Amino acid sequence: MSHRQPVRIADLHQFDTLIDARSPAEFALDHIPGAINCPVLDNEERAQIGTIYKQVSPFEAKRLGAAMVSANLARHLRETFTDKPANWKPLVYCWRGGLRSGSMVTWLRLVGWDAQQLANGYKAYRGHVISLIDTLVPQLRLQVLCGATGSAKTRVLHALAQDGAQVLDLEGYASHKGSLLGSLPGVEQPSQKYFETLLARQLETFDLSRPVYVEGESVKIGRISLPLVLVERMRHAPVIELRASQQARLDYLLRDYAYLGDDPQALAGRLGLLKELQGKEVVSRWQAWAGQRNLPLLFSELMELHYDPHYERSQSRHFSQWQSRRTVQADGLGEADIAEAARQVASLGG
To answer: Which among 48, 94, 266, 331 could disulfide-bond with 100, CB atoms 3.0 to 4.6 Å apart, if both were Cys?
Structure first.
């Protein structure tokens, strides 16, 4: 298929463009960051060829598949690659570095481009991601940032990152705020695999001699599960606790979760999940407030009856260094207060 040796993960940076030749559904589930999707078979075609392979014959599947691949490659040559110069150097991958990426590489080379194929394809990259997480996480000098709901932990992490600190923004990678009401409007969470891809990509950038700041999370963020090696590392890391008054936290929550008032029905539905913990009468009152868009009363009672009691119970159970935690007191949670809290956190964590 090729007169060149397939390239390895460590060589990705040597290429102008990274091309994922898999179907759009495979690409959406997970892909190498920075890759563009140029499928040689789309979702329906891939399913059709698979059915023919099993139910008719491998030969018939290959014959029809070759025609589909040729048509798709022709379209990519006319459209996607039309502006590429003669010295363009793309790297192509598919699931295992087989026929799909091999077919594209063959045609790109016939044009004259120095196209090459990733050894073992996406499967090799997935193994690379798992290996990075398992290898690097135990070496991290983690500083775990804790604080009651509404204490602006995520914003403090962002301020730390802006000041040059090393930060793992797990809720950012998971596209979720981590609580019962943490799903973001109009934003789907990534797949479990792509979350791990984003995590691994961040880990690769870290200087292991410097501290890494991370919010103290539970084992799941929405439907995303944290790697067990990371959970274990967090559980035994030093803790810095952010403290703010109940009023400051309530004001912050009303700003940060204001969008929940835009869909009272959805908010009431999520609150219904708390009936077993809080009782039907309490949750019915909360649902009524949601319907009235009365977020101040709703959030105030959620903090008092649900979030704060759970926080007090869970921290000492989950973090082995909780009793020796260091604290940062925030007078307020405006932009200037958050910036000052980040500076204090950095002074403790360094």
So the answer is: 94
Q: Tens digit of pLDDT for each residue in 292-329?
A: 999 999 999 999 999 999 887 889 899 999 999 999 99
Question: What secondary structure, in 3-state letters, does 71-110 show?
Answer: HHHHHHHHCCCCCCCCCCCEEEECCCCCHHHHHHHHHHHH
Beta strands in the chain, from DSSP E residues, in sequence order: 17-20, 36-37, 90-93, 116-117, 141-147, 166-168, 211-215, 220-221, 224-225, 239-244, 326-330
Confirm if 38 and 76 have CB atoms less than 8 A apart: yes
Beta strand segments in 226-289, E: 239-244
What is this structure's pTM? 0.92
> Which sequence positions are flagged as catalytic?
94
Name the pLDDT band for 145 (thresholds 50, 70, 90): very high
Distance CA 311, CA 308 (A): 5
Give the C-alpha separation, 264 to 270, whole Å: 10
- Angle ∠(142,148,149) on CA atoms, nearest 5: 110
pLDDT tens track for 335-344: 999 999 999 9
